[in-house]
Amino acid sequence: MKKQPIPKILYKSIFPAPGPKDPVTFDQFVSEVLDLEIRAEIAEWYNCHTNEELEEVYPGWDYADRTVRMRLSRYKGHSKLFKAFDKLGLSAHEINSVVTWHGTRSELEDWEAESGSVRGRDPSVSDDDDDEDYHYGEVMDSNEEEDDDDDDEEEEEEEENNRDAGVVAAIGDLATQADVDNTDHHALPGFPVNYGNRVPMMRNGFH
Q: Region labeled Disordered — which residues (predicted)?
């Protein structure tokens, strides 16, 4: 059985029961929804004010890149598109084969091939430039290790804060004891006379 074209599969996934106001094809969805969202993002990000300026910008957004997805998911049409990618389990190669409109990685690469020039990439786009056949869900799973590292750093920071709090408490106890035991108000070595119950400010991060 012949496999259906990816755009057709995507359209059915995004619009399982199209309404009278919905696009009738994937191409119409791109031109009437996604393209407008892309232009809005380019205008905001690059401070473009005219159609001519918009046309001269080639962000090169890779729709298989998680950073790009997080950024463009703010738009309703792109959010639906990315959910369809994940639902269908499309690979990065399959995604980039169908995502060829304005602002995309494919458009930028075509422009560079035709002009012989190379443009600087959008700084928000990942530096990884590979076509490995991975699924976006798998990419997300691979980042669980990064989340674990962040958790470890938070635990270490909390332990350090607890140690610092213990030091401050201990100093406060010593100062209080000095005030009680030394009736002539002589402080402990290192503490000023008549320091009372106040906790002294220390060097190395306490003032």
A: 110-185
Residue 104 main-chain phi, psi, to 5 deg: -95, 170
Asked if 28 and 7 count as a contact pair (C-beta separation under 8 A), the reply is no
Sequence spans of domains, the chain: 6-142
* SS3 state at 71: helix
Is the separation of the CB atoms in 160 and 205 below 8 Å?
Answer: no
* Nearest 10 degrees: Cα torsion 152, 153, 159, 160: 160
Per-residue pLDDT of the chain (207 residues; tens, 9 = 90+): 468 899 999 999 999 999 999 999 999 999 999 999 998 998 888 888 788 887 777 788 999 999 999 999 999 999 999 999 999 999 999 999 999 998 888 877 877 787 776 665 555 555 444 444 434 333 334 344 445 555 555 665 665 555 555 544 544 554 444 444 444 444 434 434 343 343 333 333 333
**CA gyration radius, the chain:** 30
Side-chain-side CA neighbours of 126 within 13 Å: the count stands at: 13
CA–CA separation, 117 and 101 (whole Å): 20
Q: Is the C-alpha dihedral spanning 37, 39, 44, 45 positive or negative? A: positive
State the Cα–Cα distance between residues 180 and 182, nearest whole angstrom.
6
Q: Is 136 exposed, middle or buried (0-12, 13-18, 19+ CB in 10 A)?
A: buried
